[in-house]
Specification:
Layout: H1 3-12, H2 25-40, H3 42-56, H4 65-78, H5 80-91, H6 96-104, H7 106-123
Helix pairs in contact: 2-7, 4-7
Protein name: Glyoxalase
Length: about 130
């Protein structure tokens, strides 16, 4: 394991979630890699989404909570450039070994990654208030 890989795994911290004998390889990757990275990068994701709101020129801050939740989900699912940018923020913190595991099943892992990120942002929707 390279010095970079050792640094990244130590920096990200402990595994999130539970893993047992019945856990699939994707679940294991999700809990060992994706969840710690999403947690570590949370503040950055919030700022990136705030910037996306500004660039989108919508009236997001005056939307109802339900419409804000829909906007979060729709933005990540439909805006390919934005989604790819978010994926890049996560993938940049993969070790070389994790990247090799990721590319073997990137489609399913991308779905997991984006679903978890959407839920993370939705659960923090109250943080997206207009700053005066």
């Amino acid at each position: 394991m390279s010095a970079r890989d050792q640094f990244l795994t130590a920096f990200r911290g402990e595994m999130q979630g539970t893993v047992n004998a019945q856990s699939s390889a994707d679940e294991l990757f999700q809990n060992e890699t994706l969840r710690p990275i999403l947690k570590l990068q949370n503040d950055l994701f919030l700022e990136v989404f705030r910037n996306y709101i500004t660039k989108s020129k919508t009236d997001f801050y005056h939307f109802s909570v339900e419409k804000k939740l829909h906007f979060i989900e729709h933005s990540i699912q439909r805006d390919i450039k934005f989604r790819n940018s978010l994926k890049g923020i996560v993938i940049a913190l993969f070790t070389a070994e994790e990247y090799i595991r990721y590319i073997q099943n990137s489609s399913d892992l991308n779905k997991r990654m984006m679903s978890m990120l959407i839920e993370r942002l939705k659960n923090q929707v109250q943080l997206f208030e207009l700053q005066v």
